[in-house]
Amino acid sequence: MKALSRAFLMLTVTGAMPAVAALPSYELTIRDGHFEPARIEVPAGQRFKIVVHNGGTGPTEFESTPLRVEKVLSPGVTSFVVIHPLRPGRYPFFDEFHMDLPEGEIVAQ
After folding, report:
1. Does position 104 have pLDDT exceeding 90, yes or no?
2. Distance between CA atoms of 99 and 63, rounded to whole angstroms?
3. pTM, whole model, 2 decimals?
4. Cα angle 90, 79, 106; round to 5
5. CA dihedral sign of residues 83, 21, 9, 3
6. Phi, psi of 34 (to 5 degrees)
7. How far apart are CA 76 and CA 44, in angstroms?
8. Residue 50 and residue 104: Cα distance in Å, rounded?
9. Model pLDDT for residues 73-100, shown as the tens digit of each residue
10. Looking at the predicted structure, is the pLDDT value of residue 35 above 50?
11. Residue 106 and residue 104: Cα distance in Å, rounded?
12. Of 31, 37, 96, 87, which Cα lies nearest the Cα of 63?
């Protein structure tokens, strides 16, 4: 039993365990309700991460009803959301603090 435990520990320490592939990542800056970029194109059927940065002077929110995700950020804060694999299509997102401004979109192809 001890030999098996040592073997597992050796595999773990030496990195012989299977590596987890990094998620594709997309950057999004929200500056006072304006999205940069306003359109993010992603491959359909693949999980991905959106790194969201609030470059504005007040709070902001990355929200998408069809994706069932929302993230509120204070000024200067960076965070991320992981999005499940999407079917081909258009998935709008918006900043609830700036509903008068155009929404952004994720396009899965």
Report:
1. yes
2. 11
3. 0.77
4. 10
5. positive
6. -100, 130
7. 31
8. 13
9. 999 999 999 999 999 999 999 999 999 9
10. yes
11. 7
12. 96
